[in-house]
Task: inverse folding
């Protein structure tokens, strides 16, 4: 039997899916602790000191291989009491996967192709987990266009993989820092593209710059306006 639903109903059931990228130290991992809900942080990077003292309801599982990530996916697919899943980071997972594929074959092109297939399949699988909000973090890549202008976007081995990632999520945000005249640094999430930073907001509910607060961002997207401050 075909079931017809309203767009808002489907969107809430699907959850918020986002890609957050930035330079080291901009607060990508720390942002994963701002959900205000039970969160699983899947860490592929050895850098959790920034959240060591968090009081948030966050559990961490460390992964070192692509197969371990698959095991976690199977566990989540069977049902979970987590509301958010944060994968930190897709860049590191892609690098580990590529290293494995390079050992398995002598052909670099084939290794990059297999890595891209696995990483994109993984992103789509986690994205499609029902009733879960999912965050992918990524390193930042800097390139130049034909006019010498600097462009910034998510980074993975293989340009095609990095270029494809934004298409699979609803929100792409660039973590940026600003400094006032007194030297105070503020963290921001750029949620809309400006021709230099890759960013998008399919909901249309976010401002150009938002505080890096996933709880506030979720409520804003769902129409539950609250006030938050930048970190």
Result:
């Amino acid at each position: 039997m075909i079931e017809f639903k309203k767009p808002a109903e489907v969107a809430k059931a699907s959850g918020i899916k986002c890609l957050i990228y930035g330079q080291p130290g901009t607060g990508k991992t720390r942002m994963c602790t701002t959900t205000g809900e039970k969160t699983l942080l899947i860490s592929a990077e050895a850098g959790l000191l920034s959240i060591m003292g968090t009081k948030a309801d966050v559990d961490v599982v460390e992964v070192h291989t692509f197969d371990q990530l698959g095991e976690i996916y199977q566990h989540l697919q069977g049902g979970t009491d987590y509301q958010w899943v944060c994968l930190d980071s897709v860049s590191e997972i892609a690098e580990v996967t590529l290293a494995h594929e390079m050992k398995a074959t002598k052909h670099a092109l084939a290794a990059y192709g297999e890595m891209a297939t696995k990483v994109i399949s993984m992103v789509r699988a986690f994205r499609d987990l029902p009733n879960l909000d999912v965050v992918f973090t990524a390193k930042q890549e800097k390139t130049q266009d034909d006019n010498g202008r600097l462009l910034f976007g998510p980074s993975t081995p293989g340009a095609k993989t990095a270029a494809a990632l934004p298409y699979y999520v609803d929100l792409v945000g660039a973590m940026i820092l600003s400094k006032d005249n007194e030297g105070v640094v503020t963290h921001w999430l750029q949620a809309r593209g400006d021709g230099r930073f890759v960013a998008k907001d399919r909901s249309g509910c976010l401002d150009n710059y938002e505080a890096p607060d996933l709880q506030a961002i979720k409520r804003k997207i769902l129409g539950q306006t609250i006030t938050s401050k930048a970190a």
